Structures
1.
Amino acid sequence: MKIRSVGIQNFKLMRDVKLDFSLDPAHPLTVIRAENGNGKTTLLHALSWALYGDKGLPAEARNMRLLDSSTEVGKPERVQVRIDFENKDSQGLTVRYRLIRTLEQTLTGPDPQDVKDGPGSVLLYRITDSGEDEVEVSLIRKLFPERLLRVFFTDGDGVQAFISGSEAAVTRQKEVHNAINALLGLDELRAAAANIKEVASSKRRDAAAAAGGSRKAAEEVLAARETEEREAGERLAECEERLANMTVQKSAWNKELDELRGKGDLDEIQARLATVRAELTVLDAEQKSVLKDIRTLFESETFSWKAMEPVLLQGLTCFETLVDQGVVPGISIEVLRDRVNDGVCICGESLAEHPAEASVRRNHVISVIEENLSRSLESQALTELWHRARTSWDNESARRVEESPENFDDRRQALMDRYTGKTDQIRAKRAEESELDQQRTAIDEVRVDRLRNQIDGVEKKINDANSERGGLKVYFDAAVLARESARAAFEKAEKEAGKSERAELERLIAEDLHEVASSALKAMETEYVSKVAEKTSQMFLYIVGADPEYEAGVFTGVTINDNFDIKVNSRDASLDPAFELNGASKRALTLSFIWSLMEVAGSQEPRVIDTPLGMIAGGVRERMVKAITSPNNLDSQTVLLLTRSEIRDIEDLLTERAGEYWTLTCSKDVKDLVHPWGADRAEVRVCGCTHRQSCELCARKYDAQHGVMFQTRGDI
Amino acid sequence: MTVERKSALVEALADQASNLALRFPGYQEQVLERLTRIVMNQDSYAAETARRKAISDEVSALADLVILDKGAEGAGA
């Protein structure tokens, strides 16, 4: 089976993308180059959605929008994926099909789950020379069994579900078992064996009814025990299925939580934020305290003296001048009047009206009295002020001598330094608080809380289911024993009873058929598992470059045990791939398993793998690509979705193996694109550039370091 | 189911049919043919009851053959 082409409309950022895939048996590889976030995973999901519907999408993406988030809210849009593929029928003739899955969606809000599904359809057509004939869609399930979703369409991480990851061992074993059964066509044989067994039971009941008596009673007991056993087995299987599903769901939620935590541990950020805010409160209080001290200082007498000192000194100087001029201290008018009345001056000279000499003195004193009378109020006030100023200044000078040597300036400077220091500390803390706030905003707190609650809830359910499973297993084992006992009783009764020939004959024939079918099933499982293990071993050793004969080597082979556990053998021990292999070896092992399984099964289904070469470099990378792209007699098709980094150093090999090349580019990468191209909304577009080329659409600033040559569209 | 897978399945059924001690060893070929048909037709019926009815019919047809042969043997004797 081969995918011929795909057409995608309005699936995420792919508004109109069309790709053809290589059909050339000599060049079975299709290379789709895209950088991270440029449509590789979208393409993978679009293909698996078209084939499997919602089940083709990762668990966390189901029931969410398929449209791009920038689609207009409230406006219905049609999502459509068309896949043209071909398949060989039982006569070996090639038949072409076209699958078209369509779904109308309307966004109702900004969140991924804010979407309303409208009408949808899945149509399958057989394409003939005369046109298209609609055929049963159920054919898709036969051609692409649902259980093989992870085999056909996977990515570098998802591919490891067969051997590692956080999934429980029982889930991994189930994946391997399912893949083997589905690919090798054992499901039909298993179903047939189960149905034949039911028919055999039915025939046995018929035979017993015909025979009557104790045999009939024994048969009824046996039938009842078989029913009990079947029901107990179904309950046990249902519980295990539920347990496995819950484990897968828990794993998906844990993965999402880990991704969210990758942006920072929310608890740690919250704790740091609380600490920073407490520190800010203390700093604020300390800053206020310093401010209070500063206010006190500026309200103090010391500050007033400091502030007024130049003015006071200037005032005192003025007073000295006034003293020199005799304005202050002022003369007492009353004393002068007394002197005039007494006729004797303070100096003892006469101030009488006669003689003339005394009269001159008397007139001078009277003129002084008159002069002073005109200015007495000002003089008195000035004199009082002069006295107070001089006394205060003398007191202040004395106080300064007695007090601490730390003067006002020192105290002010110390307080200002403390204030500035606190301000700087607060600024730094605010910046830290802002950064932490941004980190916290980047984490979707609601989603983290919801995931935690969901994980807690599912863990509790898993514990409950484990307990339930234990009880059911005990009950089932008891039912098996009871059925075996009833069977022995029935066989004993059978011998004693007479035989109803026709019914008995049919019973025996049915039991013969069941024995052949169930034995063939067991043989095929054993034989095929052995073949798959052998091929897996060869391919794995080749890819990792191991030589089993080399004494100092680590890997000697791969086995798959009866529980469908894949193990890697070392010298004297077996290694658990989940914990004891590095990332590259894990990918090598799982891809080897998938390829070997498909080869043993003769499967021609296409294999589409997203970013398979991450964490893989050097010889391992080259050998891996050689192994999974080599032309083979199955004429199978491989599609690799690769980044420029993954392509590096294997360009020649890709040129040798690939028959089709495409490059996906998203307009959002404006910083990396050499020629950013305008689009109203982010969009993924496709061009036909090979892994060595670039054009106006896809050229990146770092192309040169990947050996990519620019060519204009016309050259491509 | 591909041609290769079908032939592998038929081969496995044939191996088991010849290795196991069947109650009616003379009908190996018939058992194999009908068993193969049963397996191949598993997904031809949507309902479980229809699948079992088809199996029951195959079993009855085999029983008819056995009875017929026994009758023929009896007549011959």
2.
Amino acid sequence: MDNENLKNIITSVIPECEFSADESQFLNVIVKPEEFRKLAEFLRYDPETQMDYLFCMTAIDWTTHFFTIYHLTSSVTNFTVVIKVKITDRETPNIDTVCDIWKTAEFHEREVYDLFGIKFNNHPDLRRILLEDDWVGYPLRKDYKDEINIVEL
Amino acid sequence: MTEQELITNIETAPETQEYFINMGPQHPSTHGVLRLLLTLDGEIIKKVEPHLGYIHRSIEKMCEKDSYQQIVHLTDRMDYLSCHMNNEAVCLCVENGLQLEIPERVKVIRTIISELTRLSSHQLWWGVMGMDLGAITTFLYGFRDRELITDIFEETCGARLTMNYNVPGGVMFDIHPNFQKRTKDFITYFRKKLPEYDELLTGNVIFTERTKDIGYLSKEDAISYGVTGPSGRASGFACDVRKRFPYSAYDRVEFKEIIYTEGDCFARYKARIDEMWESMKIIEQLIDNIPEGEHKAKTKAVIKLPEGEYYQRVETARGELGVYIVSDNKKSPYRVKFRSPGFSNLSALDTMARGNKIADLVATMSTLDLVIPDIDR
């Protein structure tokens, strides 16, 4: 199986998705938050893809929108795909959890919630993980201001 | 007693009540500041809830303001026991983004020092693990042998722990003239000493009683939790980055990927001991064949990565470290994410410890080989 095949498989599940592979070494798929959960379940349980290893999960703040980024690979077929979910709602960003599909997502989603303020629906224990519970703001957002600890040059 | 009497006896036994205990943040077996909130029924663990972040420094946020050369130095402070591999990960990622051709000499030097770092990390782990289970001698033995490696580092890199030897494009200085001889001497010495480790702990009845069938992690859980490194391989998850995605000089050396299928503490212990033998094998294959040439490729003073995303993974002593850089063509990256092995390994602790006793949790934590700054970043 190569990237072309993988593209065809993903398009058969989610017809409206964008692909980009020019700027990264992996195949990138951009999906909407509503469709993400369906794609994740498919990639994990489909016998052809079997993406059982979520090796990196993070988010990016592009000031107008967020991306949550899932690096998936399969321990069987060794194929890698990167799912990017575009979240345009900056006030109450939210997305479905995948921690029942990949257990490692439980901690990683808590980290993203902690540092970006993205809520994960149906997460069993969504609390701050690295910062204190009463911390104000989400430090990895680009508009985060901390005049004491961050020195602007 | 008849069967019926037994059943009545059990039914009328007084009820037990679950209670909580805080283990850490100053507990000696957590090797740093990590707090575990234990839910207990008597001495049996019902749930482990890690509370982390005591030394969170927000390295990822700092990286967004720093140049690419500066980022390398921050990564030393994550997993300080595999600092060389952390540096290497960032350097490889940047070099990959710049499409920079790296001299062969650099690749070999990096691989040798990576393996020496892995050896020293495993030596420290072995010593500390013995001490966690009540054997002080192992601690002294482990540190005695580790000292020789740090001496080699001191001579070549100028520092003993956080070496900062890698820079984008190569290594900071050429190796010291003594480097090859001292490394070879060390390998000869350590080949004799490693069987001693086995004699002290591996065959010890008290030790095996406390590690066999304790802290079980299945292969499915290991993959699902993303448990990598020797811990993941002890559960049968073939996750060695050096084999799957060879970098530096790993494609030209022969070594075995250590895989155990038992998934208990003893398997994780054995996996690390075996890995030390493999590391020595790798060093021996390379130490006499360091190619001549430059120790650094020419780079610009200000590095700007082309717009795009770069992902690089390396195998540290604890598992798979991923560096994810998103660049917008400025002199500092737009976003950096470190996928640290400790963070994912820790998330499986709850599954491993459930149903065991508190004393077994100490053994389980030791074999996970957690380094707290790596988790907190």
